[in-house]
Amino acid sequence: MPELTRTPPSADAVPDDAAAVNALRSGVMRLSRRLKHQRVDESLSPTEMSVLGTLAGCGSATPGELARKEHVQPPSMTRIVALLEAKGLVVLEPHPEDRRQKVVSPTERAEAMLEESRRRRNAWLAELVGELAEDEWDRLRAAAPVLEKLAQLK
Question: What is the pTM of this model?
Answer without folding.
Answer: 0.72
